[in-house]
Write a structure and sequence with these properties.
Structural class: alpha/beta
Number of helices: 12
Strand order of the largest sheet: 7-6-8-5-9
Number of domains: 2
């Protein structure tokens, strides 16, 4: 091989190495998302030996979605109900499979983004009482008495929020609902300032406090199953990426996600440490 040919070949090799990107995993800006983003990144690195850049704690839904479309991210965890109502601006649906099928098909058609099988938990709204409340379902709560309700500011405004809940169950309230920051709901419940709160089903404090999640026995709240959304281009670039990510499907039921969230929010442990322990536990 002459010198000219060698230099040309070397230049081509360097250029191809330079264009070969590591994967980029992202997340939105709250504990559960950051934890999931770290779990995904570490799992890929461990199983594939591919470097993963992290862009965690990015911001809200639309910021993460736009980053995925533009290629700044290759993947991030998203919720089916959020994708349906906020990204696709579709009406609320309450059948979990119908919601998943809709977002999967529309994301693929519009943006060549793939929804993988759900991770196992459903982070929807949850109506929570103290453990001594004596009721286990929302239907039973509606018959039992009037409730002092505590809720976040947006619960009254959402199409899957307060008004529909009251109509669906005939739930009676004692006075006006107390609106507050989400971080204050559990202390208000513990201190008996309220006796029913509208929180989220994977809140870490559920696993640590003497509280109970009321069964939504009429299936009012829509599904917010969490799945990994991945750019098709990334799946093409790394043919085994889909199989590796699907290894996590179903491995994070509600109780597990609550426990992991509490490790970070309640015990103030680093998300990286909690993610590593979870993956080691999976073997």
């Amino acid at each position: 091989m002459d010198r000219k040919t060698f230099i040309a070949g070397l230049s081509l090799f360097v250029a191809s190495c330079g264009s070969r990107k590591s994967l980029v995993a992202g997340s939105k800006n709250f504990t559960e998302q950051v934890l999931l983003g770290e779990i995904l990144a570490r799992h890929i690195e461990r199983r594939m030996g591919v470097a993963v850049d992290r862009k965690l704690n990015l911001g809200g839904t639309m910021l993460a979605h736009e980053a995925l479309i533009k290629g700044s991210l290759d993947l991030y965890p998203e919720y089916t109900g959020t994708a349906l109502t906020e990204v696709l601006t579709r009406p609320v649906l309450r059948d979990a499979q119908a919601v998943f099928d809709t977002v999967r098909d529309e994301y693929q058609r519009r943006w060549q983004l793939d929804w993988l099988s759900p991770l196992g938990f459903n982070n929807t709204f949850a109506m929570i009482v103290r453990g001594d409340a004596g009721v286990s379902t929302l239907s039973a709560a509606a018959k039992a008495r009037a409730w002092r309700l505590g809720m976040g500011y947006e619960f009254a405004q959402r199409p899957d929020g307060l008004d529909g809940l009251l109509k669906t169950y005939g739930l009676r309230l004692s006075g006006e609902p107390a609106t507050m920051d989400l971080g204050l709901l559990y202390s208000a419940l513990e201190n008996r300032q309220v006796d029913l709160i509208a929180a989220n089903s994977t809140d870490g404090l559920i696993s640590a406090l003497p509280v109970a999640v009321l069964d939504d026995d009429r299936h009012y709240f829509p599904p917010y199953q969490c799945s990994v959304v991945v750019r098709e281009a990334a799946l093409n670039r790394y043919p085994n990426l889909r199989a590796v990510l699907e290894q996590l499907s179903g491995k994070l039921p509600d109780a597990t996600m609550r426990r992991l969230n509490y490790e970070v929010d309640g015990k103030h442990r680093p998300a990286e440490q909690v993610a590593e322990e979870f993956l080691r536990g999976l073997g």
